[in-house]
Amino acid sequence: MVQPAGQRRVISPKVAKEMMAMLTEVVEKEGATGNSAQIPGYVVAGKTGTAQKALPNGGGYSDYNFFASFVGIVPAQHPQLVVLVAVDQPHPYWGGTVAAPAVRDIAEFALQHLNIAP
Fold first, then answer.
1. Distance, CA of 49 to CA of 13 (rounded, Å)
2. How does pLDDT run across 63-88, given as a tens digit for each residue?
3. What is the CATH number of the domain that holds 88?
């Protein structure tokens, strides 16, 4: 594959393939954290994120304030969309619970609107 001028590959095709396989398992593997991002007919890859927020005095991290996120890539075999949802101080606070379903809904709409086939 010829790369456009001014671009360079930063990871090998082998590593890129392995990484996409791991990100696909986050969504597709039974019981995985990103299961709620699944879209019928499509293979979705993604990554959940749940982070404690830093304390304002710089003395560590909060036990009660979180930042949750999920980034989804679809279709995983030939990516056409990347969707990121980040939620500040959600309840519950897990990225797979609050952000992944939003990514699914946004991606489903975009896939239909853009006529991107499975």
1. 25
2. 999 999 999 999 999 999 999 999 99
3. 3.30.450.330
